[in-house]
Write a structure and sequence with these properties.
11% strand; two-stranded antiparallel sheet; two-stranded antiparallel ribbon; 50% helix
């Protein structure tokens, strides 16, 4: 879900609220885009047991491992490996780039003074922050 929002595949306007059961629902087109993101994630490779497997295969292996453990046929259950890699937009590289960005360079990339000020303020903190997609693209435009 995080990847879908950070990549711009899903936006807030893709959801609607139903007052009768107090749930948010996906628009039809957004459902398909989200399924595509999930499919891509499940089909991506991950290192496990000395080889590269797809996530759907790893989930199947872990399910069988859990069943053996619960049935008492195995005394060991390792559910920590492999761990998914969750990448944040506000990683250390982006933070350093924001902090080193000069006003003239920001102007050249069409990033306004107030936006740069806000980004610098957030980049100094350790907490997570978001960057609008257009600003992300403009930041990335200067990276070779």
């Amino acid at each position: 879900m995080i990847q879908a929002f950070e990549s711009g595949t899903l936006e807030l306007h893709d959801f609607y609220f139903t007052g009768d059961d107090y749930r948010y629902r996906f628009e039809a087109g957004a459902k398909q885009r989200f399924i595509d993101v999930l499919r891509e994630g499940f089909n991506s490779g991950v290192g496990y047991k000395g080889c590269v497997m797809k996530w759907d295969t790893v989930i199947q292996e872990k399910t069988a491992e859990l069943a053996r453990y619960l049935a008492g046929r195995s005394r060991r259950g390792d559910f920590a490996e492999p761990a998914p890699l969750l990448e944040r937009i506000d990683n250390r590289t982006i933070r350093q780039m924001i902090l080193s960005l000069t006003q003239s360079e920001a102007r050249r990339r069409r990033i306004g003074k107030s936006t740069l000020h806000h980004l610098r303020k957030k980049a100094h903190d350790d907490s997570s922050f978001s960057i609008y997609r257009k600003v992300q693209q403009r930041l990335a435009a200067g990276v070779s």
